[in-house]
């Protein structure tokens, strides 16, 4: 039987506990899970691609999962998945708004390559509200992000905020 390879793509800026949950669960579904760290022109990244890859690698190592690999890419997702010989795209869902966007993306991806299935995993209920964008915003305004990211990621974010400067007037 051929090795089942899955790709979990994202910007992971920063990697949240929700992402870690999807990685942990997605790794059980395939023989090898490739975390594809990419860029998104519509997002304002706090960390460079190299920094995000190092962050994801460190956090995956801390999870102790041995069938996960971190790879950077800057191309169409389906081209990346084909290059990795993936048969599955793993996507995490938090809310109805996520579903609508992901459903459309899955349909477009199926048009590009019908041989690669998209699998949706619902985030754990306690993690559903977490979004990287909100984590960054909370940190930039001096809020506590410790419930949303690992201690190491919180330290990374706080160090970056120290460089960028906090927002707000308090």
Instruction: Return Rg in Å.
Output: 16 Å
- Pattern of helices and strands: EHEHEHEHEHH
The CATH class is: Alpha Beta
Biggest sheet, open or closed, and with what strands and sense? 5 strands, parallel
- Secondary structure: helix percent: 40-55%
Q: And the CATH topology?
A: Rossmann fold
Brief rundown of the structure:
The chain is α/β, with parallel strands linked by helices and 170 residues long. The termini are far apart. The chain is built from 6 helices and 5 strands; from the N terminus they run E-H-E-H-E-H-E-H-E-H-H.
Explain what this protein looks like in three dimensions:
The longest helix has 17 residues, at 96-112. The protein has six helices and five strands. It is an alpha/beta fold and 170 residues long. The protein has helices spanning 17-26, 49-63, 77-83, 96-112, 132-140, 151-164; strands spanning 5-10, 32-37, 68-72, 88-93, 117-122. Helix 2 links the parallel strand 2 and strand 3 (68-72). It has a single domain, classed as HUPs (Rossmann fold, 3-Layer(aba) Sandwich). The chain is 42% helix and 17% strand. It has a five-stranded parallel beta sheet with strand order 3-2-1-4-5, with helices on both faces. The termini are far apart.
Provide keyphrases for this structure:
alpha/beta, Rossmann fold, 6 helices, 5 strands, 42% helix
């Amino acid at each position: 039987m051929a090795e089942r390879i899955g790709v979990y793509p994202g910007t992971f800026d920063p990697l949240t506990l929700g992402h870690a949950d999807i990685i942990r669960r997605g790794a059980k579904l395939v023989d090898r899970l490739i975390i594809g760290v990419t860029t998104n022109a519509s997002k304002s990244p706090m960390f460079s691609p190299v920094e995000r890859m190092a962050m994801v690698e460190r956090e995956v190592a801390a999870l102790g999962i041995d069938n996960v690999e971190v790879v950077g890419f800057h191309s169409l997702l389906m081209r990346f998945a084909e290059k990795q010989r993936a048969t599955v795209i793993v996507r995490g869902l938090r809310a109805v708004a996520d579903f609508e966007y992901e459903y459309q993306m899955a349909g477009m991806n199926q048009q590009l390559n019908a041989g690669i299935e998209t699998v949706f995993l619902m985030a754990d209920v306690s993690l559903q509200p977490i979004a990287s964008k909100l984590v960054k915003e909370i940190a930039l305004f001096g809020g506590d992000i410790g419930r949303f990211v690992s201690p190491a990621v919180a330290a990374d974010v706080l160090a970056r905020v120290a460089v960028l400067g906090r927002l707000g007037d308090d």
